Amino acid sequence: MWSLKGEQIYLRAMEPKDLDFLYDLENNPEIWEISGTTSPYSKHVLQLYLENAHKDIYEVKQLRLCICNLKGMVLGLIDLFDFDPKNLRVGMGIVVNQKINRNKGVGTEAVEILTSYAFSVLGMRQVYANVLEENAPSIHLFSKLGFEKVGIKKDWIYSNGAFKNEILFQKMNG
Length: 174
Description:
By secondary structure, the chain is of the alpha+beta class. It has 6 helices and 7 strands. The protein has a domain at 9-125: Gcn5-related N-acetyltransferase (GNAT) (Aminopeptidase, 3-Layer(aba) Sandwich), CATH 3.40.630. It has a 7-stranded mixed sheet. 21% of the residues are buried. Pfam families: Acetyltransf_3. Keywords: Transferase.
């Protein structure tokens, strides 16, 4: 049987009670570079987002899930985005909010679980991830899970007055 649960984490849909976590995460300037955020979000805007988070991936072309430890504490978010059922591909992004929860296998389990979901349940042929060239932990994560570096997008992200390269990773089903 297929599950969204691993040995130390599980993935679940976002709920109204996640507003404060989402507010802290989305307003953390340290992740704006990877999320494309340019200004803070209000709680009101995030509340509206949560009210629509239940919509089907086939309708909104994305799926955002909370990464929770087995005690139910939210550690981060993992997303499927640019869902393309015609070409059988989807992008994946992940963020573990606090550094204390990183490098402990949380991201590994979350990516494994959601990749399996994308292949088994959604029938995707490929999952891809975009990673900044300087993001060694994410490069290590996707590489060790069988994602192949297939290209570099030159000067793709403009941040803090400089252009940065982004690596395109891809994992094929089968």
